[in-house]
Amino acid sequence: MGRAFEYRKAAKMKRWGNMSRVFPKLAKAIEMAAKAGGGDPDMNPALRTAILNAKAQNLPKANIDAAIKRASGKDATNYADVNFEGKGPHGVLVFVECATDNNTRTVANIKMYFNKNGGQVVPTGSLEFMFDRKAIFEFAMPDMDLEELELELIDSGLEELEEEDGVVIAFANYTDFGNMSSKFEELGIELTKAELKRIPNNPQEFTEEEQADMEKLFDKLEEDEDVQAIYTNIA
Predict the structure, then answer these.
(1) Range of 53's domain?
(2) Residue numbers in the chain where pLDDT is lower than 70
(3) pTM (2 d.p.)
(4) Most exposed among 29, 53, 103, 143, judged by the fewest C-beta atoms under 10 Å?
């Protein structure tokens, strides 16, 4: 059925419906982008993307401005990206992306969540090849047909393009994120979302009962302030 279908399905099943969970994570992404590349979105593509995605999740402007201000302060927190790979209940594969200012704390917490919920953390690199890392862009269908749009984007790294109900989803390799972003700006296409995602290349079916067991682990991971994203091989 194609990666776009799987992505839409995953988006519809998204668990982060609780603003108390997702807002701090969005703000942290903005703060990290601003600290790395400066607080001016016009001069910092990563910050523009973080703000775009935050707005798509209805993060208030005051929160966005506060995150940028924190990044430019003399006491700005230094965050590091760290990933974990693990196997959960019933053999589900789990890839966890974190942003932390205390690696010792994060490692201990992530291992505890897995161990107490029927899983275990595995060595780094054990599962990464089971996921394709993709740049994914969402936007309203512009004033051109899909074939013409595809021709415009193909040289910038486009791999797949799908449209449904006036919403277009474009896929590219994660290394082409910048090329694609620049092309959208050139074409005057306003994105509603731009993300780097890990998509399972061999998704597996699990029963509702099995997924209920998995949810206990996912909930614990999502509640952790250091966890930015969770990916699984659930079909």
Answers:
(1) 3-72
(2) 1-20
(3) 0.87
(4) 143
